[in-house]
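Pilot study result, target chain (622 residues):
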Amino acid sequence: MRTLCNYSRFYRVLIVFLSWILLISEGPCTHGDSPSSKVWLHGFALLGTPKYPKGFSHFDYVNPEAPKGGDLRLGAFGTFDNLNIFPSEIKGNIEVGIGRIYDTLLTPSLDEVSVSYGLLAEALAYAPDFSWVSYRLRPEARFQDGHAVTPEDVIFSFQSFVANSPTYSSYWRDVARVEKTGDREVTFFMAKPGNHELPQILGQLMVLPKHWWEGKNAEGKQRDVRSTISEIPLGSGPYILESMDIGRSATYRRDPTYWARDLNVNRGSHNFDRIRTDYYRDMNALFEAFKAGQIDFRQENIAKMWATDYDFQAVRDGRVVREEFPVRDVGRMQAFAFNLRREPFKDIRVRQALNLVFNFEDMNKTLFYGAYSRINSYFFGTELAARETASKEEKNLLSSLKASVPPEVFSQVYVPSVNTTQEEVRTHLKEALTLLEDAGYVFRNGQLLSPSTGKPFEIEYLGRQSVDSRFILSFKKDLERLGIKLIPRLVDDSQYQSRMRVFDFDMTMTLWAQSLSPGNELRNYFGSAAADQEGTRNVGGIKNPAVDMLIEHIIRAPTRGDLVTAVHSLDRVMLWNYYVIPLWSSKTDRTARWDKFSHPETMPFYGESAFPQIWWSKNLEP
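Predicted structure:
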C-alpha cells in the first residue's frame, strides 16, 4: 500500500496544482508535465514556500559584514588515512574536514525546516509528481583549477557516490538515470513518482571534478574513485587543503579566488583564513590540548567533564567562554545497538530482558550529574516522537501489518524501564530472568547458560573511547545480576571502523540523528536492503518487512500529517521490537572556546552553534 498510489496520476497532478494556487508566489509545484516544460525556482521547500525571495542579499542569521581573516585551530579524536570521500564509508578513515573543499548543488537555510537554495545550481525545476528534477548550473561555477563545473561533473559524482557509498546508494535509490539535458543542465529521472524529498536530497550532492579523477597523479598513476588516496584532491569549495600530515593534522586555506565568495548564500560565511585540525589518539590528551590553548574550540559531549573539569584558571578569568546552544532540529536516538545477525540477539525476549535491567537512573545520578534525559523515541525531542497511544490514523496504517508487529503498538506508549528504587530494580531483574528462562536459558551457579551450547552467556561490547568504560562498567554490574558476562573491548579508531564494517561485534553504542522531515535516509538506517551492506548505518542488521513498508510510507507521504502518522507508526514498531537499549540525550549543544571569536547576535534557529561556518575572528573587528 502506497499513499500516493491511491490516486490516479491526473488527480495527483491536480491536487499539487491546486495547492500551488493556494500558496501563490514561487511555491514548490510550479512545473509542467515533462522536462521540456520547466519553471525554474531559486530554492526548494519540502513544505510550504521558501522564506527568502529570489535575489535575496543574505541569510538573516549571518553578519554580512563579518571580517575575513585569522586562524582557527581544532582538535579531533582518532586518525585519518584517506582523502577520497567516495568510498569513505567502506575504506580507510576520512579526514573530517574534507567537505570544506567541495560545493553542493543546493545549500540549506539554517532558519527554516527542510529548505535549500541554489549554490552550484542557480535554479532547479521538477515535475508535479516528482518523477524528475533538473538543476541548472551557474555559468560562473568553477573548480579551483579554473575548469567550469559541468553537467558531466554532476553525473560523474552521482554515479561514483552511488557505486561506492552504501549511504548514498540507499539515499538516492529511486533515481533511475541521470542525463545532461542542456549546456548547463542536468536532469535526474526517477524509477517511480511520488518521492517528495528527492529535489532536496539530490541537491546535497557534492560535485567533484571528473577531469581530475580521470587523470593521473604526480607519480603518473591513474586515479581510482574506488581507492583511498593521500593526494590532496581538487574541489570547488571555499577552502583548499593546503597541507596535511597523514593521521596527524590537516590545514585548510580559504581560497581568495573562490568563485562563490560573494554569492548571497555565502555572505557572512567561511570567514577564517586557515582552519587546522590536529588529531589525538587519547580523549584526555585532546582536552588537555584545549586547556593549554593549542585548540581554540571544543564541543563537550561528556556531562561529567562539563560539570567538573572546566574549573581551570582560563575559565575563571574569562579567557575561555562556555556557551550552550539549543538543539531544535534534530531527533536523536543514541543507543546500545545489538547485532541482530548473531544468535542471542535474534530473540526479542533476550533484547527485552537486557532493556529491563539497564539502570539509566543510577548512571545519570552518579556519572552524569543529572544532566541527561532518557531517550524514549527514535525521534526524541521532536513532534515526530510517538508519545501518546496510537491515533486512529496510525491504527489504520498499522492494521495491514498486524500479524508482523508487536501487539503493544496498538494500545500502549513505549516507556523505557525505570530503576530508581531497589524495589524497581528487583522487579525488573525477576521479569528479565523469566524472559530469559522462557527463551531457554538456564541460571546456574551465578551464570546464565545458553540453550544451544550450554556455555555461559557473554556479550562483547565494542567501543573506541576510554570514557566508554565508565558507563559500560556500570552496565556490566547490572548484567552480572542476570548471570551475563559483559566484556568491554575498547579499540583504536581504525580497528573500530574495520570491525564495524564487517559487523564483528555483539553490542556497540551508536547514534542516529533524525531531521524534522525524515525520509530516504531511513532506508540506510533501518531498511532490510542495507542490513548486510558493508559500511551501512543499519548497524544492528534490522530486517523487518513492516519497517520497510513504513519507511516507504514516510518517503511518499503527500502531506505533513501523513508523514507524522507514518513516522509515529515506525517509531512504535521499532521501539516495541527492542532493537536497541535507548540511552540518554541533552537538548543543548555544549561548547567551550578561547575568547578569540564572535558570532552573530541572532543565531540560526535550527543551526545550533553553526560553528565555524558563520563565526569570525574577534581581533579583526573594527
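One observation from the pilot: Residues 1-32 have pLDDT under 50 and may be disordered. A full batch analysis is planned for the follow-on phase.
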